[in-house]
């Protein structure tokens, strides 16, 4: 069976538009439409920032639904499950595509707190002044890309984007003031990155501890002390979040979802899901208020 949640790539779905890019790491696209694939459940293969003029825009990112009508900023992180339900083609959208290599190499001291807040609050309505400021940032990036020296252009783009996350990101996503400096916080960031990439294949903490070169007991204590959330709960939360999206947004059967999430049986999946949500998968699928 083909995976109903497909990866999204700018090259496959914006091929008819002008793409201003710096190699494979950074690209700008201006459009008055959303690709048809945005109205299915998809996973972006990079970070996508979308600056939106005032319009009606509805959808979901993970299990969080959104409905926007004012100028807005949406930031989609790699591997997040995304689906747009409604978009009025009466405005311009400004897309900024950033590869993981690009974002990983940004000089951001408080990286974890910023990206964590973006992850949990990926779309917000903004004021007209903030919208104009973002357009200035977009235009500066476009001017940078058109520079004749690609290496210098990439450096400037990184500095401008770091400033974006420090300034606009700070104000809009209310990132915490804690700065990531110590080893424990770095391990927390690496752990969450590993969980995002592997949760549907590896549910046991031993896998992550081995990848990070430490014992499960030490990793468990470190994650709990630095995030306030147990390491096993981080893994469970990602599994349950994707399971909920599959149940609500796709026609996949519960057996198919169980197989996709790598459970040994539908019965095992059902017990796991109910333990964490107090509902069976079928009850959750038919429950209209969640």
Automatic annotation (TrEMBL):
Q: Where is the HTH araC/xylS-type domain?
A: 189-287
Record key words, sorted: DNA-binding, Transcription, Transcription regulation
What PROSITE patterns does UniProt report for this protein, alphabetically?
Answer: HTH_ARAC_FAMILY_2
Q: Does the keyword Transcription apply?
A: yes
Molecular function (Gene Ontology), one example: sequence-specific DNA binding
Q: What Pfam families does the entry give?
A: HTH_18 (PF12833)
This protein's name: AraC-type DNA-binding protein
């Amino acid at each position: 069976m083909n995976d109903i949640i497909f990866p999204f790539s700018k090259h496959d779905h914006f091929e008819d538009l002008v793409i201003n890019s710096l190699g494979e790491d950074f690209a700008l696209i201006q459009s008055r439409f959303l690709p048809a694939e945005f109205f299915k459940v998809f996973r972006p293969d990079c970070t996508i920032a979308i600056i939106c003029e005032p319009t009606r825009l509805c959808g979901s990112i993970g299990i969080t639904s959104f409905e926007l009508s004012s100028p807005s900023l949406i930031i989609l992180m790699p591997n997040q499950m995304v689906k747009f339900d409604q978009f009025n083609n009466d405005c311009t959208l400004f897309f900024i595509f950033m590869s993981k290599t690009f974002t990983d190499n940004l000089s951001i001291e408080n990286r974890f707190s910023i990206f964590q807040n973006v992850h949990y609050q990926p779309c917000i309505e903004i004021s007209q002044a903030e919208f104009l400021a973002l357009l200035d940032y977009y235009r500066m990036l476009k001017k940078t890309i058109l520079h004749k020296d690609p290496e210098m252009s990439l450096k400037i783009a990184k500095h401008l984007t770091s400033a974006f996350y420090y300034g606009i990101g700070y104000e809009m996503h209310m990132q915490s003031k804690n700065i990531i400096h110590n080893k424990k916080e770095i391990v927390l960031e690496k752990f969450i990155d590993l969980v995002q990439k592997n949760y549907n294949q590896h549910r046991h903490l031993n896998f992550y501890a081995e990848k990070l070169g430490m014992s499960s007991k030490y990793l468990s204590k470190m994650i709990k002390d630095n995030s306030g959330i147990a390491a096993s709960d981080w893994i469970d939360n990602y599994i349950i979040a994707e399971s909920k999206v599959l149940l609500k947004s796709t026609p996949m059967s519960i057996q198919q979802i169980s197989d996709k999430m790598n459970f040994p049986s539908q019965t095992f999946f059902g017990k796991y899901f109910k333990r964490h949500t107090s509902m069976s998968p079928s009850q959750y699928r038919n429950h209209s208020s969640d």
